[in-house]
Amino acid sequence: MINLEVPGKLGVLVSQARQSAAEIFRPNSRKYDQAEHTYPVELDVLAALIDGLNASGAGGAGASGVRRDKDGDKTKIRNGANLATVLGTIEMCWGDVGLLLSMPRQGLGNAAIASVANDEQLQRFAGKWAAMAITEPDCGSDSAAIRTTAVLDGEDYVLNGEKIYVTSGERADAVVVWATLDRARGRAAIKSFVVEKGTPGFELVRLEHKLGIRASDTAHFRLENVRVPKANLLGDPEINVERGFAGVMQTFDNTRPLVAAMAVGVAKAALEETARLLSEAGIEIDYDRVGPRAPAVVSTYLALEADYEAAYLLTLEAAWMADNSRPNSLQASMAKAKAGRSATEIALRCVELAGSLGYSENSLLEKWARDAKILDIFEGTQQIQQLIVARRLLGKSSAELK
Ligand SMILES: Cc1cc2nc3c(=O)[nH]c(=O)nc-3n(C[C@H](O)[C@H](O)[C@H](O)COP(=O)(O)OP(=O)(O)OC[C@H]3O[C@@H](n4cnc5c(N)ncnc54)[C@H](O)[C@@H]3O)c2cc1C
């Protein structure tokens, strides 16, 4: 049975993540919010530490810790890499979500590789920092509409197209690019390819200026006759119409709980800071005096905290199911929808509760309100997660419910 207490064995990881977030992320938060597109060099030491943890087999540190044990014994309950990664991510994003997104070798492309790569690919791409490129100028939510093409030519695939809004695109060593083998055959023909930086024809067009997560670089690429070895296709190269989108979508089941965890981390930061500021102003959050007997500001705070708790528990559930080899698409989307929406609302309401201080750069609340919104957009927007949840609950296909 599922038990959502934090397992004792993960306590050390959680407290180490919290310490790193407090000592490395928080003190640099404002600096890299203001110095957009500057690489945060302070992250190098921490990244080396996480590499060490992953290499030692401790697992669960960063995106590369995300992995499904397909042959696992389903009768045994396990608290594994996904739960550990989610718990670590919450703490790191309590520190700073933009800086976590900038962590070397912990890109969403790394999570894709960890989720679907075969053993040879896992070995070959070990140590590489990988971004993920799905979105195109004419395709966002509807990822089945991808126009970037991949054509087999001898031992290589030749890729052509355009990719926009690629997180860590400029800094990463490689980008996992989604492309179609045959547009006429729909979703089943969409595959992901690891494109290494420096490959001829893979050109950086520009970096975006953004509302939030300004520490994280967001890149636009053009692909013109980019040749990648056949062996860089992740997953099954066959177009299997029966399986449809399943191969590439499997990545989302692992990465959506991670984005939900990021949102939970930002919400936690905003709530803690607000409680501290309220306390300084002489208003304590008193759990023994709730409902009509509590001041309005405390009632509002408690409602936000309840939302936070629901998002947190859904996120743990989605990760726990992945660790235990149970299908979790529904729970991953529920967690992402709830956490993305709650973090956005919580951070903005906290700005309000803190008054003028909340809106000023003297506190990080205004930054968190800007940072939170993206967590309700990328890896599938709020509306798309709700659509997926509705399809799963009603047993409808994507063609039946759009
Ligand atoms: C900072 C940032 C970083 C990003 N990083 C990455 C990355 O690393 N890799 C990557 O591939 N992409 C990335 N993205 C892109 C992101 O995933 C897309 O922006 C997102 O999927 C939405 O696509 P879109 O912007 O084209 O909006 P659209 O799909 O055009 O949607 C516009 C609006 O319509 C709504 N909508 C769309 N379809 C429906 C429907 N059927 N029912 C109801 N409402 C609907 C959407 O929810 C949204 O509110 C990033 C974006 C940003 C801003």
If you had to describe this structure to a student in words, what would you say it looks like?
By secondary structure, the chain is α+β, with helices and mostly antiparallel strands. The protein has 3 domains: 8-124, Butyryl-Coa Dehydrogenase, subunit A, domain 1 (Orthogonal Bundle); 130-234, Beta Barrel (Butyryl-CoA Dehydrogenase, subunit A, domain 2); 246-394, Butyryl-CoA Dehydrogenase, subunit A, domain 3 (Up-down Bundle). The protein contains 12 helices and 8 strands. Strands 1-4-5-8 form a 4-stranded mixed β-sheet, covered by helices on one side. Strand 2 and strand 3 form a beta hairpin. Residues 108, 131-135, 140-141, 165-167, 210, 218, 374, 377-378, 381, 383-384, 387, 402 line the site of flavin-adenine dinucleotide.
Architecture blueprint of SSEs:
Elements: H1 11-34, H2 43-55, H3 81-95, H4 97-101, H5 108-116, H6 119-124, E1 130-133, E2 149-153, E3 156-167, E4 174-180, E5 190-196, E6 202-207, E7 218-229, E8 233-234, H7 246-280, H8 296-323, H9 329-353, H10 356-359, H11 365-372, H12 382-394
The protein binds flavin-adenine dinucleotide.
Sum this structure up briefly:
The protein is of the alpha+beta class.
Can you identify the CATH superfamily of the largest domain? Butyryl-CoA Dehydrogenase, subunit A, domain 3
Number of helices: 12
Unique bound compounds: flavin-adenine dinucleotide
Q: C-alpha Rg, in Å?
A: 21 Å
Helices and strands, in order, run as HHHHHHEEEEEEEEHHHHHH
What distinguishing features does this structure have?
single chain, 402 residues, alpha+beta, Butyryl-Coa Dehydrogenase, subunit A, domain 1, Butyryl-CoA Dehydrogenase, subunit A, domain 2, Butyryl-CoA Dehydrogenase, subunit A, domain 3, 3 domains, 4-stranded mixed beta sheet, 4-stranded antiparallel beta sheet, 12 helices, 46% helix, 14% strand, binds flavin-adenine dinucleotide
